[in-house]
Amino acid sequence: MSVSARQRTIATGTLQAGGLRGFLSNRKAEAVLVPTGALLAAFVLFSVFLLFLGKSPVEFFQLVWRAGFGTQFSWENTLSRTAPLLLAALCVAIPSRLGLIVIGGEGAIVLGGVAAGAFAIFATGLPGALGMVGMALAAMAMGGIWIGLIGYLRHARGVNETISSLLLAYIAIALMNHFIEGPLRDPASLNKPSTAPVDEAYRIGNLPSLDVHWGLAVGILACIVSYILIEKTTFGFAARIVGGNTRAARIQGLPVGRLMVGFCALAGAFAGLAGMIEVAAVHGSANASLAAGYGYTGILIAFLARHNMLAIIPVAILLAGIEASSGLVQRRMDLPDATMLVLQGLVFIIILMSETLIGRFAIFQPKTEAV
Amino acid sequence: MSADDLGLWAVPIAMLGGAIRVSTPFILVSLGECITERSGRINLGLEGTLVFGAMAGYAVAYESGSAWIGVAGAALAGTAFGLVHGWICKLPRVNDIAVGIALMLFGIGLAFFFGKPYIQPSAPDLPSIPLGFWSDIPQLEAALRVNVLFIIGIALAFVIAWMFRSTRTGLTIRVVGDSSDAARAMGIDANRVRLLSTAAGGALAGVAGAYLSLYYPGSWTEGISSGQGLMAVALVIFARWNPINCIWAALLFGAAGALGPALQSVGVTSGYYLSYAAPYVLTLIILIATSSTTRALEGAPGELSITK
To answer: What is the ipTM score, two decimals?
Structure first.
């Protein structure tokens, strides 16, 4: 039986079981309301934490609002930070649909940035658009190989992907330091070792009439494409079967290994692209600023969005806004820069705890017909 | 033989000294993770516990003026993190690996948050024992200056091995780790055993952190940990969940970590940044070599999620 035929059978199956529309709306409501409630609970807990320190939670959230979302300038600042977070979150969310917890997106981001920087050094004089595409392809290939390797090791050798991805992230950062301090170092970069500045023609510009670079559009497009790929195609359906039950997928004759490597490589390609965007739109060269922790914030975003590619977009904007307000909160409230890390960690823990509530509330459950 | 004509011998001597210094936190964290994993749970959050322990140990030692009170404070903080992990994982449908990642980020965040004022002042150091007093080669003498926590770690490995082999507590942990059903049949509360095992693992990770900030490198900075807490998880797999093997594995990792500084001490600087990757590459190679898709790992606790 082909995959699409199976999909149809399952769909009709649920239809018969009891009102497809009601079923979907309730389950969807649950998938939105439980994480939202958890987010609010985490904010309340964080407020208690601030009160213990003698700081005002009201002032904190006002400042976050003002610096993240209050004015056009703050919106532009937030949206500029959103692009790498969208792509970093995809690097977690895509493998998770195959049941893999890959948390080393940071490695693919920094190496993607280095690959893009290296391309810009060696392929000079191309027309701007071609140069940008070349940088993007170099970064995506690098990131794809890096995370694809994790999928391969998992499939071929049974190596735990969570541990291997984090180890590879450390290795990637060592490699980046090697390249930007050694072979690719621009002698003119004195106190901050960097590659040579990227040719102006290869730099990514801003969206029309906005002070936000094109990376945002690329990130949103990547989320939409991933959503369609995972939810609406047979490839995605096959991947989700692997995520649900690998053994069943294998018995069905699905190419489990190829799916794992392919989707991990796609995830890595997106993370690599995030590195390229950082180089071509923000920093202007590859340097240690690439390891800014986007990969780790991406993990939180993917879990908050419950690995739904479209839900990643609003969640990433929210987290970008919180990060954008970090500077103002530090200055006004005399809090250390790690404040946002504490908030993120707290949100992460509460979100995971809320998983236990999924399926516990009767109102969200499909009405089963009396037997 | 005088110090000047040691030549290339300086590299293995520096690596020996480095291995002992660098391996101590590995021994402590991996013993802690060994207890946790033998009970059937995996705590990836030890990296966060370690960083928080480093900060807490340093802060308490600075405020109290005693390095040992600092170590106790770090152990206490680590226990708290372990209890939180164990308690959250008790909830149904909650994934222990994901909770570990969250606690790793949370622990690091909290450590940076509260650690800001302690970056400048200097706290008392942990004492060390000069085991190299018989040698007249200063490098060897320096290499054999061994910290008390290293010796405690070695002793603890034997105690834990004995505990698993011949005590009721050890047997309880092993039963819970191998089969929840068997444990339930025996009337053991599996979640409680796992909670306490995770707490013990957290305490040891906290002490390992205190070693980092109070002895080597010996001060609290935000970059103090280079993933020791995480590598310990891989190291325990390599050690086949055997506490004695943890010592050898930790020494091997310590030597790999000491490679870069040792080469630099004799003037080899090319590939200096690459040598930082050595412990991670070694960990990865070991993971690849010891994992398998077809057979369960020898000695693996049956309930452990990463080996299922």
So the answer is: 0.91
